[in-house]
């Protein structure tokens, strides 16, 4: 017969350690995304200045292929990584369109 774990008054140190690592990774992801969007904002402003289109389908295709390969090498679901990158690309294009005045 399986028993439910007892309610503990003291926090589980192992779980707390995992959660601290997750929190640190989440903070790093937020900072990395912020830096990425600072750079892509500059790209959008440059594209608007030199009258380049906001989207670059060939670059996007290559980036998705590259990220899927990296995901596979890292044992991360390539479908997830592609969805994640597509979400970022869509947001970047929206920023570039805004920079262009569209």
Average of the residue pLDDT scores: 90
Low-confidence stretches: none
First CA to last CA: what distance? Answer: 64 Å
Share in β-strands: under 5%
Q: Main β-sheet, in a few words?
A: none
Tell how many strands the DSSP assignment holds. 0
CATH superfamily: Chorismate mutase
Principal-axis shape equals elongated
- The fold-level CATH name is Chorismate Mutase Domain, subunit A
Radius of gyration: 20 Å
The total tally of domains equals 1
Tell me the layout of helices and strands:
Elements (H helix, E strand, L loop, with lengths): L12 H37 L7 H17 L4 H23 L2
Helix pairs in contact: 1-3, 2-3
Describe the overall structure.
The structure is a single chain. The chain is mostly helical and 102 residues long. The chain has one domain: Chorismate Mutase Domain, subunit A (Up-down Bundle), CATH 1.20.59.10. Helices cover 75% and strands 0% of the residues. The chain has three helices and no strands. α1 (13-49) packs parallel to α3 and α2 (57-73) packs antiparallel against α3 (78-100). The longest helix has 37 residues, at 13-49. The model has no long low-confidence stretch (mean pLDDT 90). This is chorismate mutase. Its EC number is 5.4.99.5. Residues 9-100 form the Chorismate mutase domain.
List keywords for this structure.
3 helices; Chorismate Mutase Domain, subunit A; 102 residues; single chain; mainly alpha
Summarize, please:
Residues 9-100 form the Chorismate mutase domain. By secondary structure, this protein is mainly α.
